[in-house]
């Protein structure tokens, strides 16, 4: 399995949406320390976390690129995906209380933003894409879980294209 992963990432350009989040940061660290990639693009709207990551990963500065953007902005995500081989889609609004208080913001990010990511993946002819889900999408009882279920369904259906 380890060899398959090494080959999967070898000389690839990877884009991580939500790259400054807890998953994104750990994933990027793991990839930088264990695989021979071409480069990894951190796509997020948090410039403070991006600048901190640049400091934290100074040893990998030649393979790390930062792209300020929001998955709600289709043109920006398309621009970020130029010449990308693999997309890891981790961007989402994830806090249940925030989602309940700001329902349409969650819909714009988790559902419409995911559709934007898919459209950019298809237009950019990305080789592989992986989307993160959550256990809360399995039997949703709140907006966050419901939005992630919809996001999952959209991502799965995009395999038809």
Summarize this structure briefly.
It is built from seven helices and five strands, in the order αβαβαβαβααβα. The protein has helices at residues 2-9, 22-34, 47-56, 74-80, 96-101, 103-124, 143-157; strands at residues 13-17, 39-44, 64-68, 86-89, 128-131.
SSE arrangement:
Elements: H1 2-9, E1 13-17, H2 22-34, E2 39-44, H3 47-56, E3 64-68, H4 74-80, E4 86-89, H5 96-101, H6 103-124, E5 128-131, H7 143-157
Parallel strand pairs: 1-2, 1-4, 2-3, 4-5
Helix pairs in contact: 4-6, 6-7
Overall description:
The protein has 161 residues and is α/β, with parallel strands linked by helices. The chain has 7 helices and 5 strands, in the order αβαβαβαβααβα. Strands 3-2-1-4-5 form a 5-stranded parallel β-sheet, sandwiched between helices. Helix 3 links the parallel strand 2 and strand 3. Helix 4 packs across helix 6 and helix 6 runs parallel beside helix 7. The radius of gyration is 15 Å and the shape is globular.
Mean pLDDT, to the nearest integer, reads 95
Using the CA coordinates, give the radius of gyration: 15 Å
The end-to-end distance, rounded to whole angstroms, is 28 Å
Spans of at least 5 consecutive residues with low confidence: none
Helix coverage percent: 40-55%
Which geometry do the CA atoms define? globular
Number of helices: 7
Portion of residues in beta strands equals 5-15%
| Physical arrangement of strands within the biggest beta sheet | 3-2-1-4-5
Major β-sheet profile: 5 strands, parallel
Order of helices and strands: HEHEHEHEHHEH
User: Which structural class fits the helix and strand makeup?
Assistant: alpha/beta
Q: How many individual β-strands? A: 5
């Amino acid at each position: 399995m380890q060899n398959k992963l090494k080959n999967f990432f070898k000389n690839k350009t990877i884009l991580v949406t939500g790259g400054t989040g807890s998953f994104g940061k750990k994933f990027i660290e793991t990839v930088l320390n264990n695989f021979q990639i071409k480069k990894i693009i951190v796509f997020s709207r948090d410039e403070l976390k991006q600048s901190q990551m640049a400091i934290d990963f100074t040893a990998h500065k030649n393979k790390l690129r930062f792209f300020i953007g929001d998955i709600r902005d289709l043109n920006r995500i398309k621009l970020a995906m130029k010449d990308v081989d693999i997309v890891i889609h981790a961007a989402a609004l994830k806090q249940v209380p925030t989602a309940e208080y700001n329902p349409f913001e969650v819909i714009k990010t988790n559902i419409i933003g995911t559709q934007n990511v898919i459209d950019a993946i298809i237009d950019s002819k990305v080789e592989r894409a992986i989307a993160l889900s959550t256990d809360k999408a399995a039997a949703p009882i709140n907006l966050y879980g419901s939005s992630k279920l919809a996001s999952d369904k959209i991502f799965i259906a995009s395999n038809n294209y």
